[in-house]
Amino acid sequence: QVQLVESGGGLVQAGGSLRLSCAASGLTFSSHSMGWFRQAPGKEREFVARIAWTGSITVGADSLKGRFTISRDNAKNTMYLQMNSLKPEDTAVYYCAARAKAASQYAYWGQGTQVTVSS
Fold first, then answer.
1. Does 2 have pLDDT greater than 90?
2. Is pLDDT at 116 greater than 90 in this prediction?
3. Is the four-CA dihedral 88, 10, 46, 19 of positive or negative sign?
4. How far apart are the C-alpha atoms of 103 and 96, rounded to whole Å?
5. Residue 102: its pLDDT value, please?
6. Where does residue 17 rank: exposed (0-12), middle (13-18), buried (19+ CB within 10 A)?
7. Average pLDDT of 62-74?
């Protein structure tokens, strides 16, 4: 059974930093592309960043570039999202997801971790 478990969320002041982790089990982690998404109250889910099984990286909105860094440690079956210079508009539930290398959609999702940025 595939499990993705996010951790590292919490309450932080604007300008602060958090590092989210996504621990994966039940899948061949190195063969999956991994992504971070977020959903704020009353808004649609938003793509944050992706790190492919090859290691290539895609970051979503321009507002995230330079502040958010995605990485992975295949030896630990874990993906990370380093978030710096956080803003109140970054407040959301952050989800990690996994997609097999041949798949077009993310098949596996975590339960999410809440990130709240106070002004």
1. yes
2. yes
3. positive
4. 16
5. 83
6. exposed
7. 96
